[in-house]
Amino acid sequence: MKKILFVCLGNICRSAAAESIMINRLKGENLEAEVDSAGTGAWHVGEQADPRMREHSLERGYEVTSISRQVATNDFFYFDYIVAMDEQNLQDLKQRCPSPDLAKKLYLSTDFCEFHKIKGVPDPYYGGSQGFEQVLDILEDLTEGLLKKLEWS
After folding, report:
1. How far apart are alpha carbons 49 and 64 in whole angstroms?
2. Largest Cα–Cα distance in the chain?
3. Residue 98 sits in which domain range?
4. For labeling, which of 11, 45, 88, 101 is most exposed (least CB within 10 Å)?
């Protein structure tokens, strides 16, 4: 079974929503994978996702239920794909990665996008409703692209 970890800064907006969207997509395609999310920082450990992200996600049919956690060293060994939401998260992961061989598992989220040609998913935390909607659009694109790129057996 494939194991996918989505990572953003605090694990309360982007990565939490990406986890929910991917789980939803997998169910829709009748595929199985283990999906989780984490943050590079520990500010929100133990908290639910941001209420605004939960609300906007629910309007699209995604229930964001994950509880924030910080990336752990074991994650680099356990997960097959570690998908960073932006360039800074990717750099933070590269610095924490225990070996160059494991760094091959690290990806920038928007590299999987088919329609959004941007470098990284913007953080909607300090913005308004439009920022959350934009992030969800990008996350839907990247999860669809990731599903297409993964080999299922």
Report:
1. 7
2. 41
3. 2-149
4. 101
Q: Residue 17: which CATH number?
A: 3.40.50.2300
Mapping DSSP to helix (H, G, I), strand (E, B) and coil, where does residue 34 land? strand
Cβ pair 24, 140 in contact under 8 A: no
Q: How many domains does the chain have?
A: 1
Q: What are 129's two structure tokens?
A: 């409703």
pTM beyond cutoff 0.85: yes
pLDDT bin (cut points 50, 70, 90) of residue 63 is very high
pLDDT at residue 151 in the model: 72
Antiparallel, parallel or unpaired: β 81-84 and 106-108: parallel
Q: Describe the crossing of helices 129-149 and 51-59 by its angle, rounded to 10 degrees.
A: 60
- Report the alpha-carbon distance of residue 17 to residue 66 in Å, rounded: 9
List, in order, residues 6 or more apart from 72 with CB less than 8 Å away: 38
Q: How far is CA 144 from CA 29, 80, 82, 129, 139, in A?
A: 11, 17, 16, 23, 8
